[in-house]
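Pilot study result, target chain (403 residues):
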Amino acid sequence: MSRRAGLWVAFVLVHLLVAVSGFLLPNMPMGDVYLVYEPWALDAVEAGAIMGVTEPFVYPQLALVPMVLALGLEWIAGYEVAWALLVTAANALAFALLVGRGRSAGRAVAAAFWLAYLVLLGPIGIYRIDGVTVSLAVAGSLWLIGRPLLASILLAVGMWIKVWPAALLAAAVIAVRRRLVVVAGALVVTALTLVTVASAGGLTYAFGFVAGQTGRGLQLEAPVTAWYLWQAVAGVEGAFVYYDSDILTFQVTGANVDAVIAAMTPLLAVAVFAVAVLGAIQAARGATFAALFPPLALALVLAFIVFNKVGSPQFLTWIITPVVLGLVIDRRRWRWPALAALVAALLTQLVYPLLYDRLILADGFAAGVLTLRNMLLVVLLVWAVVRLVRVPRRLRHPEPAVT
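Predicted structure:
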């Protein structure tokens, strides 16, 4: 069997395994799909209540598109299977672009990493809206050099589904020489989205997802919550885990929590800005795309995760794209961060869904697994920043083509 055929067999088996695991594992790993996405999609097509247009929405407006598209496949075996098929189809398109003819060892390693990561991360790699954006992000990043306009459009569409690909767009604007083309593609998608929303009478809710995030409390899995979570584990008075019925997630609270909540959004902005400035300095010094983009993208994505007061387990899907690009370009240098990312994915699946019923009760073992996972994310962020600082001004060998 050829390398290419082996990767495609693995692709099918991995997606089948992960999709089925959503039905078997505890704590409703598919809950968002049938409790949130399906009702939103049905409201849009049947009742005319369109999230982000006629109703406030926690996501950007284009997030509703894949939710509605999945309804078209619902006849096969229900909405959950339809969603899994939709994400699998999107992944297949990006996977085909990544693998190509199967002749590149770097691309084969990157493809194998992606599949292994999905297995270790578990069903949230598929049964969340973030799963749709991963394929757009991978394809867009691979096309940044050869087709920057198309790449920018794909990344911008991903950004208007779930905000995180904005980190990849920012890295692209800094690292790609044809940055005006990248900016133009993003502006076109943004303008078309806003014009469509405004024409439907939804301008009031155009950026409602921003306010929805800034007003949230400290989510249970976020790195910043460790202080309060361990207080809850120790039984400190006033520190406990609770369920927020408005945003349907578990959060933590304790002494002075409001001050921490207020500080996190500015801190996140400062961290992202600092990483972007460092990347811009390296670009001005002559760093090439191949040397600069992967560590810059990883550092920006991890800044979004580490300094975020929201810490949903599906955020770990964001790491896939920068690590894939790193392995494509320089698999030797990226083998250790790739391994660390795989361990982080495994720990994330242990946290959710496997140990989540214990974590929400402030169980010490579950809290320990979560803390270890978050520490690993911090280590990865430090590695990315150090690598960014050490980016050479020029490569000794010709820059690898990523097209």
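One observation from the pilot: The chain has one domain: 3-389. A full batch analysis is planned for the follow-on phase.
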